[in-house]
Amino acid sequence: MKKLAGKVAIVTGSSRGIGKEIAMKLAHEGAKVVVNYSRSPEKAEAVINQIQQQGGEAIAIQADMSQVDQIQELVTTAVEQYGQLDILVSNAGIEHFRKLEEITPQDFQRVFSVNVAGQLFVTQAAARYMTSGGRIVLTSSVSARISVFYHTLYAASKAAVSAMVLNLAPELGERGITINAIAPGGTATDMAQENAKRYTHPALQSAPPDALLLSKTSLQRLAQPEEIAAAVTFLVSDDASYISGSTLAVDGGRF
Ligand SMILES: NC(=O)c1ccc[n+]([C@@H]2O[C@H](COP(=O)([O-])OP(=O)(O)OC[C@H]3O[C@@H](n4cnc5c(N)ncnc54)[C@H](OP(=O)(O)O)[C@@H]3O)[C@@H](O)[C@H]2O)c1
Question: What distance in angstroms lies between residue 191's CA and the mean position of ligand 1's atoms?
Fold first, then answer.
């Protein structure tokens, strides 16, 4: 018997990167999966095809996680399609680097609308349909607990996620639903490809792009998205029935 047989899951931002691997893994474990994306329909379609080729079931739904009306629509369409909702993995997120002097109210709005408001309102929308045994996993980051030049907005948005799961846990716990966050370290995706060099001290920009990142990681390598997906799959399974309000670091021993 597969671990997630009979379950229905939404994974936000699952057209590529970590979200894609989470969607694939949940489907592999037997869940019917809603693959959400914002701008990459062809990539979302490719994920659906891969899941179906492996004997799984999935649909793709476009919705921008910075727009509350689209979040509601995503969740109601998923429930109309599959008749229930058991698992939400809120993975969609955007990174941001800018000096204090240069941060604008628009930057704040853009980062917090996806990374904080989006995660809160998709949780609200999904929880309405969940019954006892429901599972919610939000996405924080190692960045919430380390100093990086010009990373203030992103780090603050990811720190907010840990506070949200901590405080939503008792409220959802009354209904038998767990909520946790994962805090990935550097993971080999488009996001890391674009930004790994920015984790290096500005005076060391001539070093290899991810040199500082790796020198501060016990396992001395980036994560593969599959390794983050494995931790999420654990958190949404029955094996994690007594874990709620936690932020699980999956960061290769970042120090
Ligand atoms: N990679 C890392 O090193 C790392 C480390 C710590 C935490 N994280 C967190 O892990 C999560 C996934 O990161 P990743 O590296 O896989 O990112 P990525 O490679 O940039 O992929 C981002 C995914 O999120 C989707 N997305 C972006 N904005 C969206 C929006 N407004 N609404 C709906 N979907 C949206 C994208 O969809 P489209 O393809 O349609 O644009 C894509 O599927 C993020 O929350 C990130 O902050 C990543």
Answer: 7
Residue 104 placed within a domain = yes
- Distance (Å, whole) CA 126 – CA 76: 9
Region of residue 92 (phi > 0: left; psi between -120 and 50: alpha; otherwise: beta): beta
Which residues have any ligand 1 atom within 6 Å of their CB? 12-19, 36-40, 43, 64-66, 91-95, 114, 139, 141-142, 184, 186-187, 189-192
Residue 209 is predicted with a pLDDT of: 67
47-81 b/e with 16+ CB inside 10 Å = b?
bbeebeeeebebbbbbbbbbbbebbbebbeebbee
Tell me the percentage of the chain whose pLDDT exceeds 90: 89
Is 254 contained in some domain?
A: no
Number of compact structural domains in the chain? 1
pTM of structure: 0.96
In a domain, 124, yes or no: yes
Domain range holding 211?
Answer: 8-248
pLDDT digits (tens, 9 = 90+) for 135-173: 999 999 999 999 999 999 999 999 999 999 999 999 999
Domain containing 180 — which CATH number?
3.40.50.720
Does residue 27 fall inside a structural domain?
yes
Q: How many angstroms separate the Cα of 58 from the Cα of each of 5, 70, 122?
A: 13, 19, 19
Cα-to-centroid distance, 174 and ligand 1 (Å)? 31
